[in-house]
Amino acid sequence: MVAVQSALAARPGMVTGARALSHFGEHAAGWLGLAAAGASLNRSRRRDWLVAAAGTLAAHAAAVVVKRVIRRQRPHHPAVAVNVATPSALSFPSAHATSTTAAAILLGRITGWPLPAVLIPPMALSRILLGVHYPSDVAAGVLVGAAVAAGARALDGALGGAPDAPQSRTEGTSAGP
Question: Which of 5, 88, 89, 117 has the most other CB atoms within 10 Å of its CB?
């Protein structure tokens, strides 16, 4: 944690960007808002957007439950700067990493974009840079989020949802005769 903060905190915009990610991911609100917007704007894929919202919310809830069972306290060391306020003193697993992972997997399934590769690392790193999570909190959050996303996809499939293949971004356009 100290190494991450030493390497990145002094770079312009790093802490500000990490704080912005933190606020966006608080209680999964940003991801839930995106899924709700998708559900309202993309009627043909509404079910998929709602599955993404439900999976993201379930991932956040799972992280909260695990935090209350494990009860690991957030980092508290004089060498670690805490750069953002948190709603609780519990840290394991990172709910931000958990909900972001679930959202990235489930939203990536809809869009066909490589969202896990683009979204998970910055959120995970931001939690360490902000001094509010140990690396193991973040790693556990990613694992829990991936497991919940897989469960949401499996449940949706069992209930007759769309197959796992993402919709082509050119679907619906004329490609031939």
Answer: 5
Count of CB atoms within 10 A of residue 168's CB?
10
Q: Which residues is 73 bridged to in the sheet?
A: 90
| 90-100 residue pLDDT tens | 999 999 999 99
Position 80: which residue type? V
Q: In 3D, which of 60, 1, 51 has the Cα closest to residue 30?
A: 60
**3-class DSSP state of 90:** strand
User: Token pair 């796992």 is at which residue?
Assistant: 164
CA distances from 3 to 20, 80, 131 (A): 21, 10, 11
Q: 3-class DSSP state for residue 73? A: strand
pLDDT band for position 164 (50/70/90)?
low
Interaxial angle between packed helices 29-41 and 14-25, expressed in degrees from 0 to 180 and rounded to the nearest 10: 60
Residue 153, CA distances (Å) to 75, 82, 130, 140 in order: 34, 36, 32, 20
Task: Please name which of 45, 14, 174, 16 lies closest in space to residue 112, comparing C-alpha atoms.
Answer: 45
